[in-house]
Each structure stands twice: as C-alpha cells, then as structure tokens.
Specification:
The protein is α/β, with parallel strands linked by helices and 361 residues long. It has twelve helices and 13 strands. Its EC number is 2.6.1.9.
C-alpha cells in the first residue's frame, strides 16, 4: 500500500504566484516595488554574505528591535518570519484543529484558504459590498464558533479598505475567543484619515494580531521577510511552532536597514501615489471600470463579450510585453490586477489598453 498524506491535503490547489516575465517583458503581476529596494538594505545584504557560514540569531533580535523603534511597540511581542505568508501558516498550525471554522471576506487573500485547508478547517467566505469587506456579513459568517477571522486591510486583490471604526466594530462583535488576524501588508501605502493598521487594537483587545511584510513598500519580496505583532500569549504559541532559524541572516540585516531608511519609503509612497492616480484617471477616462485602490495595484474589470474579456486583455498585454495578473482563482474571472510599475511601463499599459478597447469596438 502506498504512503498516503493526511486526508484533505490532495484537495488543495497550490498557490500560484503572479506570472514571471519572459526576457524583455515587464512584470506587473506581483505588486512588487517599482523602485526596487532601499540601497541601504541592499548594501546590508551584501555585507551579510561575509557571514554566511554562521547561523542567524534565532530570535531575530536586531530586526525586532528596529521594527519596535520604528513602530513604537514592544519588541518582545513581535515575531518575524519568512514573509507574512509563513506567519499566517504558523497561526493556523498553532490554533486550528480539523473541523474548526475560519472566516474571510469574499475576495480575501488566497493564502487564508490554504491555511484553513492545510489544517483540515472549514473556510467560510463572507460576501463583500462593492468589492469591500462587509463587517455585517463577516459577523454573520463568524457566528459564535469561528476560531479565526482573517481580514486583509487593505485587501489584495481588490485594493480596497474599510475604516478603523468598522474594524473595531468587527472585533467588538466577535466572540472573545475568536482570533482576529489583521493582514496589513499594504498599510504603508494608505494615508486616508479614517484608516489604521490595527496595531493599536492589538494593545486594546485580546485575541487580535497584525501581520506585516517587507515585500511591498520595502521592496524585499525576494528575501521573504515579514512580522507579526500580537499579545504575549499568542506570540509565545507562534514561537513554539516556528522553526528555530526561520529568518535567515541576510534577511535580518537587510530588513533592519530597510526599517531605518525612511527616505526610501517616502520615495516609494510618492511614486505610488502619483502613478496610482494616473491609472485611475487614464483608465477611467478610457471607459474601464477600475475599483478604487489605495494599494500599489489596480483592479480593472472587463466585459463578458467574446474578444473583450479579461483573458483577451491579458493576452493582448502579454503580446506587448506586459505581464499582469489574471484573477480566476479569486472568482474574479473578468478582472485583471495590474501592479504600479516604473513610469514607462505604466504608460505602456494605458496605451495598450486603449488599443485593446479600440480593436474590440
């Protein structure tokens, strides 16, 4: 008899990242930082190559202290990981049992589904309102027995957010023993006055954690680095299920340098603000339905008409060296997610979609 994996694992569809760009093409499928990463982070990474024979600090102490200083929080309540993806999986490993209920919003990040299925838990998706998470439907879905509620705020792939008051209403409406995971991967891009990352809520409410990443505004997607801030009891559990050296030495050094480079963050934010507005204005002017985004990407909707669908547009863009993200796995088959790129790439996207609309008319 052949060796069999745990029941349910073979039903999981592995996560498919944004497509890579062939030589000469531009990749706009993974929401990477168009400006690269901080020069200080790159130099710290290079310097770390002189110490590759050494084990990293298993507690990532230097990095946690840099994060704590920048964010004004307690370093002891920070856990670092190989991207926020790993931390989401560690949360599942630490708290989910087969049959437990996990809740997400309708177009929530695909990793939440993977976390639930890997642990044998039941995933329930709550309907959104105009591509925004809806607290009422989340509370209804959670009921009295949800073990974990995942909320990406802002959300990927829609680019939308809900205000701090609504996040608080969600936490206050959930049972005290339901863990609320606020995935704030894109928080640095948002300056709306009614938005908050959720960090303060961790100090005010039990069973609430925030996950953050270095992959987006910091431009360090290639080294896989993220962090979580939570109550001491939950942090202790995550330490017990993570690997002893889950963050490598160059990542610790690069992340520490990145946290201190506020100028690079400012440049990245300014670039994104300018070109996000450009996409909304230009694509909206061409007649495309673009969901209002506060992130470093836009969600563009297409027609059901043959020759004018999202799949047709994706192929049209690819033929012109522009690789974007199709969203069929998110049940958004007639939409594309397009990352903010460098200036020339952004202009090429608009020109290509103008040509697509013209030839489809």
């Amino acid at each position: 008899m052949s060796l069999q994996p745990r029941p349910g694992l073979l039903d999981i569809t592995p996560y498919k990242p944004g497509a890579s760009a062939p030589e000469g093409a531009v990749k706009l499928s993974s929401n990477e930082n168009a400006l690269g990463c901080s020069p200080k982070a790159a130099e710290a990474y290079r310097m770390a190559t002189q110490s590759l024979h050494l084990y990293p600090d298993g507690g990532a102490t230097k990095l946690r202290e840099a994060i704590a200083e920048a964010e004004g929080v307690d370093a002891a309540r920070i856990v670092c990981g190989a991207g926020s993806d790993e931390l989401l999986q560690l949360i599942g490993r630490g708290y989910l049992n087969p049959g437990d209920k996990v809740v997400q919003n309708e177009y929530g990040f695909l990793v939440y589904s993977l976390v639930a299925k890997q642990c044998g838990a039941e995933l329930v998706s709550a309907k959104e309102n105009a591509y925004r998470a809806d607290v009422d439907t989340l509370l209804e879905a959670a009921g009295e027995d949800a073990k974990i509620v995942f909320l990406a705020n802002p959300n990927n792939p829609t680019g939308t957010y809900i205000p701090e008051s609504e996040v608080r209403r969600l936490r206050e409406g959930l049972p005290e023993d339901t863990l609320l995971v606020l995935d704030s991967a894109y928080t640095e891009f948002v300056d709306a006055p009614d938005y908050a990352s959720g960090m303060a809520m961790v100090d005010e409410f039990a069973n609430t954690v925030v996950t953050r990443t270095f992959s987006k505004i910091h431009g360090l997607a290639g080294i896989r680095l993220g962090w979580m801030y939570g109550p001491s009891e939950i942090v202790d559990v995550i330490h017990r299920v993570r690997g002893p050296f889950n963050v490598n030495l160059p990542a610790i050094e690069a992340g520490t340098a990145a946290m201190g480079d506020r100028e690079f963050l400012k440049l990245s934010k300014t670039h994104n603000d300018d070109w996000l507005a450009y996409f909304h204005q230009q694509l909206g002017g061409l007649g495309y339905d673009v969901t209002p985004s506060v992130c470093n990407f836009v969600l563009v909707h297409f027609s059901d008409t043959p020759g004018q669908t999202a799949q047709d547009a994706e192929r049209f863009l690819a033929e012109r060296g522009l690789v974007v993200r199709g969203l069929a796995p998110y049940k958004l088959a007639n939409a594309l997610r397009i990352s903010i790129g460098e200036a020339d790439a952004n202009r090429r996207v608009v020109e290509a979609l103008e040509a697509f609309k013209a030839q489809a008319a």
